[in-house]
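ESCALATION

Customer reports they have been waiting on this structure for their group meeting. Please prioritize. Original submission:
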Amino acid sequence: MSAREPQERVSLQAQPLATPGIGAGFWATLRRDVLIAFRHRGEMANPIMFLLMVITMVPLGISPESAVLANLAPGMIWVVALLATLLSLDGLFRSDFEDGSLEQLLMSPQPLYFQVLAKVLVHWLVTGLPLTVMAPILGVMLSLPSAGYGPLMASLLLGTGCLSLIGAIGAALTVALRKGGILISLIIMPLYVPVLIFGASAVTSAIDGFPMSGQLAVLGAFLALSVILAPLAAAGALRISVNG
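Update from on-call: job pushed to the front of the queue and completed.
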C-alpha cells in the first residue's frame, strides 16, 4: 500500500455528504405521499362518498323538480365540494406528525416550502381532482343546464386547488391537537368564502348567458397567490405547532 492511499481515504471521509437538490426532495415527498395515499384507499374514497351521498339527498329533501334543482345546482355542488375537501384536511399532516416523520421533515436541509407544496399537491390529486372529474355526474343528478358543465369543471379545477392550499394552513396550525377538525373549520371557512362565491358565480353566469371569464380570472389569481403564500404560511405554522 502506498503512502498516498490513506491520505485519499481521509480526504474522502472529510468531504460532506451531498444534499439532494430541491427538485429531488420535492419529487421524493410527492412519490412517498402518493404511495401512502393509495395504500389507504378507504380514506381516499371518503370525500367522494360524502359528495355523492349529499347530492343524492338533495332531491329527496328539497324537491325532485328539475327547475328547482337547476337553480340550486351551482351553489349546492360547490358547497358540498368545499365540505368534502374540508373533511379530508385533518389528515394532511396528521399521520406524519404521529409517526415522527414530520419532525424529520422540519430538520431536513430541504426547503420546507417545497415539501409542503408536494403534500398539498398530493392532497389535491386524491381529493380535488376526483371531485372535478365527477362534476358532470353531479350536474346530471341535479339537472344542471348544459351550458354550466364546462364552467363548473373549470371553476372546480381552479377552486379546489385554492381549497387545498388554504386548508393546509389550518391543518398545519392544528396538527398537534388531538381534535383539530373543528378548529380547522373555524380557521379556514372564512378564507373559503371568496372562492365559493366566485366559483358558484361563474357557473351561474354561464347558465344565464353572461360571460364568466372574469370569475375564472379571479379564481386563477386566487390560485396563483395561494401557491406563493399558502405553503410559506403552512411551513411557519408547522414549525410553531411542532416546536412551539
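Sent to customer with the following note: Residues 22-243 form one domain.
Escalation resolved.
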